[in-house]
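4.2 Preliminary Data

To establish feasibility before requesting continued support, the project team ran the inverse folding procedure on a target of 374 residues. The structure was first converted into the token representation described in Section 3, and no sequence information of any kind was made available to the design step. The complete token record follows.
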């Protein structure tokens, strides 16, 4: 085994003492495969189990913390204690294969399809619809409603602990509610939750504080808390790279166990907001973080060579998403010196062997751009 492969397969220890068996994490990916009542299906549990023996940590698809936060058909729920048995089944499916199980907690905000939320009432920081045709005008949340959602993130964290998860990841990325409060596009408020850059951070930071306080009360110090973020928005006004660096600077001092950037391309560069637009977003983030908290990198890492090159940037952990759907044995092949056997294009005849539920399989095989060769 090469020295570089040793780096990919070496253990990693978080500040709280939790050890990961290697540097590869399964990225959170929506799978559209839960029951209509928000419970986990057997097919979904099997899908996760199939990918949990190689990766050191599996971050689940996002789960909604309130009924009006459901963002996808076939999304599983964590909005009531009735969901704890379902959540336990998912945690066990992952942990039985040797990976740490992290539940990604989420509210879709203005991105929720109206048909999926009570009364078809979509909510957000302000009554500004997402750009694009036909997007609903959301209701601007009152301060008391905001506090209820903050509490709901805490309650879902408690359920994750009860269900046996090893941690939670706060989903502050991809244009969903937490990001909507941070974004000048979706947040036009003039109260304590909006206006200045600092006030636009208030909701994300309140969620972090609530999740941390619940974990301190109900879990031991081994419970992991991460935060996922998107570095920029294309909209004007929208989140710029310098604004994200300001948020990350604050988050780096919040005692989180990790930060997790959401990128389509690992080596992508900023579009605006910083002086050096040629330096990668990862490098800008790493400079700001300055070793205060580990950053999980992600983005079109298909081969072992891609992964080794990404680790050279200094990020300690890498998340693979589509790659682990295409080849669930990615990590094992690297460990066995068979990296030239890693599959990088989806084989449309192998659904059963890949253990992918029908709803997810139907989407990835009919949506252009989801996978190389599809």
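Position-by-position output of the design step:
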């Amino acid at each position: 085994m090469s020295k570089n492969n040793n780096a990919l397969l070496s253990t990693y220890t978080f500040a709280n003492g939790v050890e990961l068996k290697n540097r590869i994490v399964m990225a959170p990916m929506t799978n559209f495969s839960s029951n209509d009542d928000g419970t986990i299906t057997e097919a979904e549990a099997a899908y996760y189990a199939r990918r949990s023996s190689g990766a050191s940590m599996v971050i689940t698809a996002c789960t909604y913390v309130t009924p009006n936060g459901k963002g996808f058909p076939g999304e599983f729920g964590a909005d009531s204690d009735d969901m704890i048995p379902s959540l336990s089944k998912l945690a066990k499916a992952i942990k039985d294969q040797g990976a740490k199980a992290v539940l990604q907690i989420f509210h879709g905000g203005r991105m929720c399809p109206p048909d999926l939320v009570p009364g078809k009432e979509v909510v957000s920081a302000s009554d500004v619809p997402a750009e694009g045709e036909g997007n609903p005008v959301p209701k601007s949340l009152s301060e008391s409603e905001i506090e209820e959602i903050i509490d709901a993130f805490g309650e879902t964290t408690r359920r994750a602990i009860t269900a046996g998860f090893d941690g939670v990841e706060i989903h502050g990325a991809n244009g969903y509610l937490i990001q909507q409060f941070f974004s000048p596009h979706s947040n036009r408020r003039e109260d304590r939750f909006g206006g200045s850059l600092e006030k636009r951070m208030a909701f994300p930071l309140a969620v972090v504080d609530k999740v941390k306080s619940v974990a301190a009360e109900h879990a031991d110090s081994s419970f992991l808390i991460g935060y996922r973020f998107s570095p920029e928005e294309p909209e004007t006004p929208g989140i710029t790279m310098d604004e994200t660096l300001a948020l990350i600077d604050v988050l780096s001092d919040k005692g989180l166990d990790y930060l997790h950037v959401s990128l389509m391309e690992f080596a992508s560069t900023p579009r605006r907001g910083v002086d050096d637009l040629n330096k990668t977003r990862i490098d800008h983030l790493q400079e700001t973080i300055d070793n205060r908290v580990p950053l999980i990198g992600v983005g079109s890492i298909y081969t072992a060579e891609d992964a080794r090159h990404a680790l050279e940037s200094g990020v300690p952990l890498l998340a693979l998403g589509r790659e682990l759907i295409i080849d669930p044995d990615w990590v094992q092949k690297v460990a066995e010196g068979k990296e030239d056997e890693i599959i990088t294009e989806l084989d449309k005849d192998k659904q059963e062997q890949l253990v992918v539920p029908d709803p997810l399989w139907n989407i990835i095989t009919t949506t252009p751009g989801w996978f190389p060769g599809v």
